[in-house]
C-alpha cells in the first residue's frame, strides 16, 4: 500500500500516530469552521491524547484496508496540514461502497485544492480499493461543498431530515452519491 500520493500541486499522505500533534494543530486552529458542519464531538476531542489514539486507530484501519484518510500538504511546506479527505463505513462485496468526508483550512479555500485532492482520492478509492459507490452527506446550507460535490459528478439523491446532531441541534443533510458504474 502506498502512503504518499502526489497531484500536480499537492502531496497526499497517510499519517500514523507520530503525527498527532500536527493533526491536532490542524483541527484546533480550524475548529470554528469545522464545528459548524461536523457532528458533535467528545469533550476531549481537542486533546493530544485523543488525537494520538484516533490517528493510531485510523492508521491500523488503513493497514487493514477498512478506512482511508489522506492529509493534504503543499510541497513548499510539507509539514503543515492544509486539508484532509477520508473514506469510511466501507461495505465490501457485493455493495462496494463507502462515505467520503473532507475539510480544508479556510486559508486554502478557493485555490482548487479540494477539487484536486478529491479527484485524486476518488481515483485511489475506486482503483486501489475497488469501491463502486461513494456517498457524501452535506447540510443544505453548505453551498460551497454542494457545488464541489456536483462538480465532481456526485448526484443528489435525497434529503435526510435530522441526519446528524451539530452544535446540539439535529440538522438535515442531503445525501449525494458518486457511482463509478454509471
Question: Can you offer a commentary on this structure?
Answer:
The protein has 182 residues and is α+β, with helices and mostly antiparallel strands. It has one domain (4-132): Gcn5-related N-acetyltransferase (GNAT) (Aminopeptidase, 3-Layer(aba) Sandwich), CATH 3.40.630.30. Helix content is 31%, strand content 32%. The chain contains 5 helices and 8 strands, in the order ββαααβββαβαββ. The chain has helices at 20-29, 31-37, 48-63, 113-127, 143-151; strands at 4-6, 11-13, 68-73, 83-91, 97-104, 133-138, 155-166, 169-179. It has an 8-stranded mixed β-sheet, sandwiched between helices. β5 (97-104), α4 (113-127) and β6 form a beta-alpha-beta unit. α1 crosses α3. The mean pLDDT is 95.
Question: What's the helix and strand layout?
Answer:
Layout: E1 4-6, E2 11-13, H1 20-29, H2 31-37, H3 48-63, E3 68-73, E4 83-91, E5 97-104, H4 113-127, E6 133-138, H5 143-151, E7 155-166, E8 169-179
Parallel strand pairs: 5-6
Antiparallel strand pairs: 1-2, 2-3, 3-4, 4-5, 6-8, 7-8
Helix pairs in contact: 1-3
Q: What is the number of strand segments?
A: 8
Contiguous helical run count: 5
CATH secondary-structure class = Alpha Beta
Mean pLDDT: 95
Helix content: 25-40%
Helix/strand-derived class?
alpha+beta
What is the straight-line distance between the termini? 27 Å
**Whole-number radius of gyration?**
16 Å
Amino acid at each position: 500500500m502506498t502512503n504518499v500520493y502526489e497531484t500536480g500541486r499537492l502531496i497526499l499522505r497517510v499519517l500514523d500516530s507520530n503525527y498527532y500533534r500536527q493533526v491536532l494543530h490542524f483541527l484546533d486552529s480550524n475548529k470554528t469552521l469545522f464545528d459548524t458542519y461536523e457532528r458533535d464531538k467528545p469533550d476531549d476531542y481537542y486533546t493530544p491524547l485523543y488525537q494520538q489514539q484516533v490517528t493510531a486507530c485510523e492508521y491500523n484501519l488503513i493497514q487493514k484496508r477498512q478506512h482511508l484518510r489522506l492529509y493534504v500538504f503543499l510541497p513548499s511546506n510539507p509539514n503543515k496540514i492544509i486539508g484532509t479527505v477520508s473514506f469510511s463505513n466501507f461495505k465490501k462485496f457485493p455493495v462496494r461502497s463507502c462515505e467520503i468526508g473532507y475539510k480544508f483550512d479556510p486559508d486554502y479555500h478557493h485555490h482548487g485544492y479540494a477539487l484536486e485532492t478529491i479527484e485524486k482520492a476518488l481515483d485511489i478509492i475506486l482503483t486501489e480499493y475497488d469501491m463502486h459507490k461513494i456517498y457524501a452527506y452535506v447540510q443544505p446550507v453548505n453551498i460551497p461543498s454542494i457545488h464541489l460535490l456536483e462538480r465532481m459528478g456526485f448526484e443528489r439523491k435525497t434529503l435526510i431530515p435530522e441526519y446528524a446532531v451539530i452544535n446540539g441541534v439535529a440538522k438535515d443533510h442531503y445525501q449525494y452519491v458518486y457511482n463509478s458504474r454509471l
